[in-house]
Amino acid sequence: MKKIITVVLSLFLCTSIFAAELTAAFVTAEAAKKNSVDESVTYLKSQISKMTSQAEKRATWIFLASLQEQMAYFDDAQKSYAQAAAIAAGDVEGMPKKSNEQIVLDAVRCALSSGDYATADSYLNSAVRNSKNANVQAYIKLYTQWSALCKADDVSGIQEPVVMLQAYLKVDSMAAVKPAVLLTLWYVTGDTSYSKEITKLYPKSIEASIVKGDAQLLPTPFWFFVPKSGEAEQGTGSIAMPEEPKQTATQSVTTAPAKFTKWQLGLFRTESNAKLLADEVKAKGFDSYITTETRASGTTYYIVLVREDKNGNVADRLRSSGYDCYGVE
């Protein structure tokens, strides 16, 4: 009898283990242990298909999208956010809380970052536009003007969005996005009154860090190709750098070898856009070229790179010329 009970108990425990719900908290923790971001992404996608709980699936799609966005995989990120928003389920324990309206706005932001304003507009014109949430409505208005800026072919095309953004500064209901509105106006007009207002009213914001030069805007199609009526000049940075030791007469001065062999300037879905940037920096004396990368989603990106030179100061020269860049070994 004891033997029978033992066998039955063992079978019950095994069944319980295999029947246990796969949770977003567990899957995301396992993804963090992978050796690379691409491995984490592949693992997360494989686990989502095994989940039976819609809420857990939704939470995992959100995590995957945020990971893809942080790595500048904007096209993939907007699709993952859209997958999450399409699931009618609530939040789950141990994961960030987000409404479906917020997720749709995340998808809009990523679509704009990849230069896909048509997809951004489709999201903005979905049910989210009927939201009763004031902050959601503020972001809808902001992103609508960002989309309008994306569509502008020249400076004349940005006039109407600029007027709308200026009007938003005077509306209390737009307070949630005011730092972003100010940053946009500063960026497209070069008017320092906007940058001064950012550092005065929002000194600890990411927008203030960008204005000061402590942070850089990612070189995405949205920020790079929007026509500008003036040049927005960043500060040189407010973070104090340690002084270099002084050389004595007997010490020889050597230049440390460059850590990176090339520098990435931008990542585009359209080859012509990548070529515009590559040709522009080449005309300024940099050794630029384009390479491609096809992601697991099947999307091919065109990456603009600049080779390091023997002096090892290409990154400094690029940034002095107004181009943000990221080292690639």
UniProtKB/TrEMBL annotation:
Q: Where is the signal peptide?
A: 1-19
- The record places domain SPOR at 255-329
The protein's GO terms of the molecular function aspect are:
peptidoglycan binding
* InterPro entries for the chain: SPOR-like_dom (IPR007730), SPOR-like_sf (IPR036680)
Q: Does the keyword Signal feature in the UniProt annotation?
A: yes
Can you tell which superkingdom this protein's organism belongs to?
Answer: Bacteria
Q: Entry's Gene3D superfamilies?
A: Sporulation related repeat
Keyword tags: Signal
> Which PROSITE patterns did the record assign?
SPOR
In terms of SUPFAM superfamilies, this protein maps to: Sporulation related repeat (SSF110997)
Quote the protein name from its UniProt record.
Answer: Sporulation related domain-containing protein
* Organism, scientific name: Treponema bryantii
**Top-down, what is the taxonomic lineage of the species of origin?**
Bacteria, Pseudomonadati, Spirochaetota, Spirochaetia, Spirochaetales
